[in-house]
Design goal:
Pfam families: ATP-synt_C. By secondary structure, this protein is mainly α. About 85% of the residues lie in helices and about 0% in strands.
Length: about 80
C-alpha cells in the first residue's frame, strides 16, 4: 500500500472516530441534564422520562458506533488501496 494512502487512512479514521464521538457525547450530556431536571420537577413521571432517555441514548450510541465502523473499514479493509 502506498504510504500516503496509509497515512491518510489513519488520519481519516481518527477524524471519523473523533467527530463521531463528540456530537453524541454532547447530546448525551444535554439529554441527561434535562432528564434529571425533568425528574426533579415531576417525580411521578420518572418512568416515562427514564425510558425515553435510555432510548435516546441508544440512538446516540448508534451514531458513535457508525463512526467506529467507518474507521475500522478505513484501517483494515481500505477501499482506496
Amino acid at each position: 500500500m502506498d504510504p500516503v494512502v496509509a497515512s491518510a487512512s489513519v488520519v481519516a479514521a481518527s477524524i471519523a472516530v473523533g467527530l463521531g464521538a463528540v456530537g453524541p457525547g454532547i447530546g448525551q450530556g444535554t439529554a441527561a441534564s434535562r432528564a434529571v431536571e425533568g425528574i426533579a420537577r415531576q417525580p411521578e413521571a420518572e418512568g416515562k422520562i427514564r425510558g425515553t432517555l435510555l432510548l435516546s441514548f441508544a440512538f446516540m450510541e448508534a451514531l458513535t458506533i457508525y463512526g467506529l465502523v467507518i474507521a475500522l473499514i478505513l484501517l483494515f479493509a481500505n477501499p482506496f488501496a
